[in-house]
Amino acid sequence: MIIWITGLPGSGKTTLARNLKSILETKVSNNIVILDGDNIRRVLPYQISYSNEDRRKLALFYSELALLIDQSDCIVICSFVALFHSVQEHTRLKANDYFEIFLDPPLDELAKKNKKNLYSEKSEYMLYQFIKHEFPINPDLRINNIINGVYQDHLSEITNKILKKLKINIFDEKDIIS
Asked: Which residue from 29, 55, 105, 118 could staple onto 125, CB 3.0 to 4.6 Å apart?
């Protein structure tokens, strides 16, 4: 199974991936791999820009890497911006099983947090990258996970939907590991 967590930078993708991995390890399997966009960029043997063309190529690389691991009967949790319809559809069609989570907090909430200094009006990201994103049309789950400046984890809801897709007994709130 590939669990594809996508959303804008700073929306909580990496944190959600780590928390989800901890829960799924206790409920499903120890064969879980997290692929995180920032971590993969750090280990690539070549530099890749943030141009739209390079971002699309990198997103397709992420997809192919996730699909390769998926073939080894591992659960792959992906946390990428990778907002390209063609890549999402490619992964959905080829994966053994696919579950897409779109973290969709309001842009003004991300701007308040502005963790990576991306959301100022004149930032290169807002001027050149943001307008090219293709937000998921039909994710399995769309979540506004930042409310009044506070991240909401939605772990029970997410885990239950994934376990249901895997046909495993539903997760109870008391099972959350703190």
From this structure: 118
Are 78 and 4 in contact, with CB atoms under 8 Å apart? yes
Tell me if 66 sits within 8 A of 78, measured CB to CB.
yes
Please check whether residue 134 is in contact with residue 155, taking contact to mean a CB–CB distance below 8 angstroms: no
Structure confidence by residue, pLDDT tens digits, 43-78 = 888 888 777 788 889 899 999 999 999 999 899 999
Nearest CA to 120 among 107, 132, 102?
107
The beta strands (E) that lie in the chain are given as 2-7, 32-36, 75-80, 98-103, 141-143, 146-147, 150-151
Its pTM stands at 0.85
Q: Which distant-in-sequence residues (6+ apart) come within 8 Å of 61 by Cβ?
A: none
Q: How far is CA 139 from CA 31, 57, 67, 102, in A?
A: 24, 21, 18, 6
Neighbours of 101 (CB within 10 A): 28
Collect all residues with Cβ–Cβ distance below 8 Å to 22 and sequence separation of at least 6: 177
At 65-116, the pLDDT tens digits run 999 999 998 999 999 887 788 999 999 999 999 999 999 888 878 777 766 6
**Parallel/antiparallel/unpaired status of strands 75-80 and 146-147:** unpaired
